[in-house]
Every structure is written in structure tokens, then in C-alpha cells.
Amino acid sequence: AEMVDDHYYNSPSWFWRNAGIYDRAPRTGPKVYVGEYAVTSNCGKGNLRAALAEAAFMTGLERNSDLVEMASYAPLFVNVNNRAWNPDAICFDGEHSYGTPSYYVQSLFGANRGDTFLPSDFPTLPVDESFTGGVGLGTWETSAEYKDVAVEQDGKVLYASDFKDKAGDWRPATGDWSVSDGTYRQSADAQNARSYLNLPELARLGDCTVRLKARKLGGVEGFLVLFHAQDRRRFLWWNIGGWGNQECGVEASSGGGKYSIGRHVPFKVETGKWYDIRIECRGPEMQLFIDDKLVQTVRVTGMPTLAVSASRIDASGDLILKVVNGGEADRQTMVQLAGIPDGAFEATVATLASGSQDDENSLAEPTKVSPKLTRTTFAHSKFDLTLPARSLTVLRLHRK
Questions:
Q1: What is the full per-residue pLDDT of the chain (400 aa) written as tens digits?
Q2: Please, how many CA atoms are within 13 Å of residue 82, restricted to the half-sphere of its CB?
């Protein structure tokens, strides 16, 4: 093939974590057209959170423009009285229209395209993540049963299940859960069936060991064991026999979207067989065992919140610097134009920011989240720059 057409619809955290998805792609195969992409969960009807995650992803597309020849946000238009897809770049009714924050990201990137990409060096600033939370069980289009569930910490048993005649402290969220013959059974042929251990003293559990036995009764996949579950949208789970009962893998859910942590390993769950499952959580590292055999070791890393791309317009020599600050605090940084003789620069600064990641535009407030333009002068090729919280900053520099 001369070109492949990649589509990405996912959560903000997925786009942040995959801003470098093409950094290590081979250069000997087909070129890439990212024909459709958008944040489609935890995005309201098109909020700033989604726009900044897409902007971070787009810096990676620019950085790999030798491979990624084209890209297009999708979808483009929606009538606010007939939404068939969410979100969209431009919203309208019979008389008015407005652009979402994602629309303004597309506009800023389109209006500030360089001819030559310039390498940049910048710090990676992950969000501090607390590796704590509760425990849960689940299935995906599979009927299964569990028993002998235990939670241990520092050699002490904090919880041990007793499914003789009732579920006890377990609270189903989705699916058909019941107690049967000393087991906790999920019988529905449903996706994403989950039940949580409802004990306040275990709700913020840190380092721990989770043990249980599991048996598949029928269906297409295997078992889901949840840990570090902070709520129904933020958790980790070990997907055993997932992806068509072919693999094991750890996935994280953040804001409604899931992403894999580390590599998957081949594994198939047999129907009717009991499996001993053990998960050992030590800070950001998890060791995962089946029948006392170590199957996986994974390490969770914080989500990046800083993304950068730099380029030059060849005809004018103008330099363009795009910086996405996805954090909740302003950042004071120093910019050095390495390899460029010292001298003064006139600059246009476009900033897309707002007071909350949840902020959106609407027919009543069409430009609530829209770029603000300022002009300034930097006396040297090394200067200080303030990156507002929750912002995309596009800095266009012209040598005086």
C-alpha cells in the first residue's frame, strides 16, 4: 500500500499517552493518513479537555510529518437539534453557529504550519498519580464465577470472602450477579459486567495483594479483576483471556476511556477450569500470577501533560513554537533557540485557555473558549515564557 488510513476515537488520556505513537514507526513502509481522529469520551459536547488532548496528539503528527502526510479531524458539522455523533467541530442551528475548542485547535494548527520541522528538547512532566483504590470483579460477554477472594496487606488479611448464602459487601454495578454454591456468579451475556467490594476501609487501598479463584462457565472471553479502583470510571483491571480469549493485559480506565499498560501476553481461558489468580501491587508496579506462575509484570507511569512541536517557515525564516500545557497550574519556562545567533524577535502569541477543562462553547457563549492574540518583543534568542494552565500556546517569532 502507498498509504494507510488510521482512525483514532478515544479518551483524553489515550491521546496524551499516544502523542508519540509514530515516533518509533518504521520509515520503510507505507505513508500514513490519519483520516479520522477525535476525543470522544470525557469530552462533554466538545470541551477544552478534549481540545488540549487532541493538540498534544497533533504535535506528534507534526513531529512525524515525514511519515504522516495528512490528517483530518472528524466529524466536522452538527445541527444542535439533531446530534447523531458527539462531539463535532462546528455546531449550528437555523440562524447561528459556533466552533468548539477543538475547532480552534484545528484553526491554530492550520494557520501556523511550518515548512521544516525543528527538533526540540523539553522536560516530560507527568501528573502525580496515587496508586490506591478498591477491588472489583467483572466479565465481558462471559459468564463466570469467583470464590476465595482475599485482600492482604503487609502479611495481614484485610478481607476474605464468604459466599455461602449472600454476597455480603459486594455491590453490583452492571451484569447479573448472584451467590450460588459458595461462589459469586455473573450470569449475564453482557459487556463490561462489574461488581465492587464495598468496604470503606479498602476504598483507598495502596500496596496490597489480591487473591481469588475464578472459573469460566461460558461465553467468548475470560475474567476481569479490578484493582486500584477509585470509582466506576477510574480503575485498573487485569483482563485475563480478553481480546477474543487470546491474551492477558492490564488496562487503565481514566475518564471513561481505556488504554493498555505494557504489552499483552498470549493466554486462553478454558471453560470449566478453576484458576488461581494473584495480583501483587507495589507502588506503580504490579506482578500478576496465574496458578502461581508469573504471567506479567507491568509498571504504571503518570500521564504526560506537556507537548511541544517547533517548525520554521522557509520563505520568511519565522519560527513557530506550539506548546500544550495540560496541567492545572501555570508553568514558567525558559525558551532557548539553540543554534540561532542572539538577537531580538517580534512575536505573536495565540493562547487557547479557560478556567476549567470542562469549559465549552455554546450558541449563547460562542467564544467562551477561543484564542486570545497578543504581540510582544523578545530582546534575545533566549527568553522566559509563561504557559497558562490548561492551555495551547502558539508562539510565532519573526527576527527583527
A1: 999 999 999 889 889 989 999 998 999 999 999 999 999 988 999 999 999 999 999 999 999 999 999 999 988 999 999 999 999 999 999 999 999 999 999 999 999 999 999 999 887 665 545 678 899 999 999 999 999 999 999 989 999 999 988 888 999 999 999 999 999 999 999 999 999 999 999 988 889 999 999 999 999 999 999 999 988 878 899 999 999 999 999 998 875 567 788 889 999 999 999 999 999 999 889 999 999 999 999 988 777 889 999 999 999 999 999 999 998 899 999 999 998 889 999 999 999 999 999 999 999 999 999 999 999 999 999 999 999 999 999 999 998 8
A2: 4
| Cα–Cα dist 112/396, whole Å | 8
C-alpha cell of 328?
A: 492545572
Q: For residues 262 and 376, what is the distance between their CA atoms, to the nearest angstrom?
A: 44
Helix (H) or strand (E) holding 106: helix 101-111
